[in-house]
Specification:
Bound molecules: L-homoserine
Number of helices: 12
Distance between the termini: 51 Å
Number of strands: 15
Strand content: 15-25%
Radius of gyration: 23 Å
Shape: elongated
Helix content: 25-40%
Structural class: alpha/beta
Order of helices and strands: EHEEHEHEHEHEHHHHHEEEEHEEEHE
Length: 398
């Protein structure tokens, strides 16, 4: 028998409980071992829950119980969750999590700790919710040198942008609708300012290129400044605006540039057609070319299903399911100022500018115009080219 403890019985944690309750027998058969949910750690009680009698409030009970082999951390944050994860791994208990902030911030250290203690630290659910992405990247794409990872990594912002594009809602109205539908938190900062996508591109890049990329190395811009005017200008040129997490490996020295920012993307591109709360991740490898992963990037049951699959993997591998990457540092990354793209600019003034295609927008404010540059430029080249223009919006074109 393998005993499991869940830390945090909120949305994802209770989804994990639900899957164990519904599919417990099937899960045990699949891994040829009985998987038993022994404890649930939470501040609250859950009367009426089938596992109500397993709820405890003291992590040290789990930590000191030699029968607990796998800990599911679905608390979130980098405080108590970090502490519990270190304590569990130090005791040789494998940990499975959906906590992207913790993996992005302390993943290298926690993977090392797992390795040193002969156990595993797995986090498939931390990126793309229920979309299988980390396991395919580390297994099926293992023979490739990856060149680029780009994706729509946040369902909330993709929903908001979809509603701005499809229904003509303003950013504020689309955010309110997302909150009313339960797609956005009351405090939506982490989603709309790109922090959530930043954590996810850190995890994807660390796994994909083999060295930890930390959130502070990733320039991050969200969607809160995008206007309906930008949406209309983009449409007139055959583009849609999407928030991308992107990382590129430079062949000459193996350094990586990762960033999060809104982009204009050709409406024929598969990424432009990823709508609502769906996520998609496009990975480019030197042998395979482009591969795209698509699906529900959030939600209780899709995320919980990825967590339980990690638990099952650990049981099958008898605790020794290793993911690994090296530590990162200032020599791991190169600046986003060295990445060239064509650019979308919305500027003050009714202008025609050499070297750029002017976009049309029937609803445009008087005294503004928008362009897409003819040439790809780095940000310093763009700043030199756009000297004298009063720029009101500036996004890369992919
Ligand atoms: N708020 C996140 C999203 C949840 O919208 O993608 C999943 O990480």
């Amino acid at each position: 028998m393998v005993n499991v403890a869940i830390l945090g019985y909120g949305t994802v944690g209770s989804g994990v409980g639900e899957i164990f309750y519904k599919n417990g027998q099937h899960i045990s058969e699949r891994v040829a071992n009985e998987v038993n949910l022994k404890y649930i750690l939470d501040l609250r009680e859950f009367p009426g829950d089938p596992y109500a009698d397993r709820v405890i409030h003291d992590f040290s009970i789990i930590e000191s119980d030699p029968e607990v082999a796998v800990v599911v951390e679905t608390m979130g944050g980098v405080g108590f969750a970090y502490d519990c994860t270190k304590r569990a791994l130090s005791k040789g208990k494998s940990v499975v999590t959906s906590n992207k902030e913790l993996v992005a911030t302390h993943g290298y250290e926690l993977l090392q700790l797992a390795k040193a203690n002969g156990c595993s630290y797995l986090f498939e659910a931390s990126v793309g919710g229920g979309i299988p992405i980390l396991r395919p990247m580390s297994n099926c794409l293992a023979a490739n040198e990856l060149q680029e990872i780009v994706g729509i990594l946040n369902g909330t912002t993709n929903y908001i942008l979809t509603r701005m594009i499809r229904a003509g809602l303003s950013f504020d109205a689309a955010l309110k609708e997302a909150q009313d539908n339960g797609y956005a938190e009351k405090d939506p900062t982490a989603d709309i300012e790109g922090h959530d996508a930043c954590r996810k591109i850190c995890i994807l890049s660390s796994l994909g290129y083999g060295r930890h990329i930390y959130p502070e190395q990733v320039p991050t811009e969200g969607i809160s400044n995008i206007t309906l005017s930008d949406v209309a200008y983009a449409r007139s040129g055959g583009y849609r605006i999407k928030l991308f997490g992107r990382s590129i490996r430079r062949e000459s020295d193996g350094k990586v540039c990762a960033y999060v920012a809104p982009h204009l993307v050709d409406e024929e591109s598969p990424l432009a057609n990823v709508e609502d709360v769906f996520n998609a991740i496009l990975v480019t490898g030197d042998s395979i070319g482009d591969v795209m992963f698509y699906g529900r990037g959030a939600g209780k049951m899709p995320t919980a299903s990825a967590v339980v699959a990690d638990v099952m993997d650990i049981v099958r591998a008898k605790g020794k399911k290793l993911i690994t990457w090296e530590d990162g540092g200032s020599d791991t990354t190169y600046p986003v100022d060295e990445v060239a793209n064509r650019w979308y600019l919305r500027v003050a003034g009714d202008l025609f500018v050499d070297g750029a295609k002017r976009l049309r927008n029937g609803d445009a404010k008087d005294g503004e115009s928008a362009f897409i540059t003819d040439e790809a430029m780095t940000p310093p080249q763009l700043r030199a080219w756009a000297k004298g223009l009063e720029i009101r919006a500036l996004y890369r074109v992919l």
